[in-house]
Amino acid sequence: MTETSGAAVPVLAVVGRPNVGKSTLVNRVLGRREAVVEDVPGVTRDRVAYDATWNGRRFTVVDTGGWQRDAAGMAGRIAEQAEIAVAAADAVLLVVDAVVGVTDADEAIARVLQRSGKPVVLAANKVDDAKGELDAADLWRLGVGEPRPVSALHGRGSGDLLDEILRQLPEAPPDRDTEDGPRRVALVGRPNVGKSSLLNKLAGEERALVDPAAGTTRDPVDTIVQIDDSTWQFVDTAGLRRRAHEAKGADYYAILRTAAAIESAEVALVLLDSTVPITEQDQRVIGQVIEAGRALVLAFNKADLVDADRRAEIDKDSERELARVGWAVRVNISALTGRGVHRLAPALAEALASWEARVPTAELNAFLGDVVAATPPPVRGGKQPRILFATQPGVAPPRFVLFTTGPLEPSYRRFLERRLREQFGFRGTPIEVTVKAREKRKR
Question: Mapping DSSP to helix (H, G, I), strand (E, B) and coil, where does residue 136 land?
Fold first, then answer.
């Protein structure tokens, strides 16, 4: 896991004084009823994050409680939550009641937003007709830009409001596209573990050259393979014998081609030799797959040559040497006899499903809230950081961003990754968890 200052999916904070229709407008933006709406002020108290999409672009909406000027007690804590949401957001949607007009509380919120330096979209809510649009013009004096007339209740003007929100939010990189056709599998491993033999067994023909001498395969070999009812595109690659900076001549270019094959694949099938202990070369191959962010299946080949004692040794060896990829899908096979080969397709499918899995933002934040309540982050520099909210900006592999009040200890981030896996699975895929710490406010 890494710590970063940016997030892939942009965040919109929705703020305003109590009972101006923020949650109703949030539901209109989401296109579904998620936020609790009641005709009394103060229903929303915490920051609540939701996934939203408009015109093919994804973003996260953070609904906040009513922001009151010089509030104390519960109202003060609600206002603090709203300020935190603004600090973590990429843009702010300020909701004002156009029927009531500008109040002292609206002006106070506008001043805070002006100082924040964040892009602001001003929503003049409760504009149900042309007369209401004239009333909305009075909101120009807040000094945060053009008022956008909208009726959260009836949907009037919501499309134009969403278009303006997208103009103010940064672009989010799209999820990795998975093209139609067979899923691409990179068949990788150190020399002489049986990659070409496995490819020939799967293809049912002598597709790749097999020789007892290590290093027979130099160029990636693409083969369409049918396993039961599923079709896959396998790429046999050269065995990685040494590090790139140590390789010369044909070995050097073979390493580059293997790296390119892993990058272009969706899942890597790493072949290991069951008859010998796991080597540094094996670890290097696995590390290359993790760095590329690909789904991972570990296939222990030559299972037909292993007795009961060696199988026990393999389990201990794997627990010790492969602890960092305990999440990988694992199968035992024999490329020579075909034993266990039928298990490859379900293993690859399971890894790819995890690789493309997405956790709804509300479910993710509810889970993290329970985890943090039970095990808070350790104190750092005399202060205990808080996790404000989290989003999953992308898949392939799953990527998570935690918005916090300060940096998190590496050990605590690893703890959160373990809990994410325990709760949501992600078997067969690496996951990325980054931290976006809130910047300190200038005095």
Answer: helix
